[in-house]
Structures are given as C-alpha cells and as structure tokens.
Amino acid sequence: MANDEQREEEEVLESIYEADTCYKKLSETGHQYQFGDEGHGKSVLLQITWTPQYPHEAPEVSLNAFFNRHLLPKVKEKIIQELKQQAEENLGMAMTYTLFEWFRENQESLLVDQSDSISDSAPEVVLTGAIDELSLDNQPNRDEKPGKNQMTKAQKRKLYDRLDRGELPRGWNWVDVVKHLSQMGSKSQPGQSDS
Predict the structure, then answer these.
(1) Which one, of 15, 13, 82, lies nearest residue 44 by Cα?
(2) Could you tell me which residue ranges the RWD domain spans (predicted)?
C-alpha cells in the first residue's frame, strides 16, 4: 500500500460494507461491487483498482470480469467513461465509496441501452466459410485402433446367465496354507541340525 490515505479508506470501506455480500475486497488496492442479481440482464460487477498515487490520481475502473460478459460494448464504454469523469471530479478525496454509490444512483440511466434479458444482449457469434475447409482426415499421427465389438443388451444378459449357472462358492480353490506346509514337511538345509 502506498500511503496512509489508502489505509484509512480501506478501513472505512470494510466498516461500511462489513455485512454486504455484494462487496468484495480483492487485494489491498482492488475492490469489487456487484449491482443487481446474477443472471439478470442489467447486473454489473464493478471493479475499482487504486493506483500508487491514489487518491490524487484516478483509480482504474474495470468491467472486464466474466460476470459482465452479457453487457454490450457500448454500454461498458459509457459506464467506464462516466465513472472516470466522476473520479476526475473527486481527485484528492477518497472516492471508491462515492463511485460505487454514484453508479447505484445512476444505474438505470447508464444501462438504458442494455436489455433486461441476458440472452437478448449476448453478442452473436457468426461463423463463415471456414467450415468448408475443416476435415478430420488430415490429422497427422492419428493411430486408428480397431474398436471392440459392442454387445447388445440381449448378448450381455445371455453371457451373465451363463456365468451364474456354474457358480462355485467363494474360496473353493483356496489353499489351506497350514495344511499345505504340514504336508510338505520342513526341509533342512545342509549344515543345520534338527534340535
């Protein structure tokens, strides 16, 4: 952390947003606030990162979180531009809380071009002629292994029925170790005497 002003503002933010689940402290200089419910078209996750000279220099404002993927580019641009303007007006003062609250008050006007539903505002992906050139035949070093023949349900059932007919009790071929060793007798090695 660069200075005492930042430390003091950090303590103030923690006391204000202590029980607020929408606020998240990312690091000593990074703070996030979620406006709106997840899955709603007009929900926004606003991230403010302090620069080393903050509050005498404007903080970095970001909407690049994955949470904001549904926002239209022009809406993101408008929000960032307006927040930067507010930051310039508040230079020299602790402004993170001020920026969060200013966005809360002006959220409707900033998101007027944004759709209420996420599916309507999601950017469209357009695929063009490149699909004609795709082929799986040209894969280098692809080892083709012959697959096993898959059995049908009837074939599996018939196989399992055969296994059940000649079922032997568990351990039918186990060797009794003690009995086996007693039958074998002890083999004495040369040079050893039985005592």
Answers:
(1) 82
(2) 8-110
Phi/psi for 189 (5° steps) reads -85, 155
30-35 and 23-25 beta bridge pairing: antiparallel
103, with CB counted inside 10 A (0-12, 13-18, 19+), is: buried
Comparing C-alpha atoms, which of 95, 8, 104 is closest to residue 48? 95
Bridge partners, residue 49, by sequence: 30, 60
DSSP H/E element including 154: helix 153-165
Helices and strands per DSSP (H, E), number in the chain: 6, 4
Q: What is the pLDDT of residue 1?
A: 43
- What is the C-alpha separation between 87 and 165, in angstroms, rounded? 82
pLDDT digits (tens, 9 = 90+) for 1-24: 458 888 888 888 888 988 888 888
- Domain with 84, as residue range(s), is 4-118
CATH of the domain at 48: 3.10.110.10
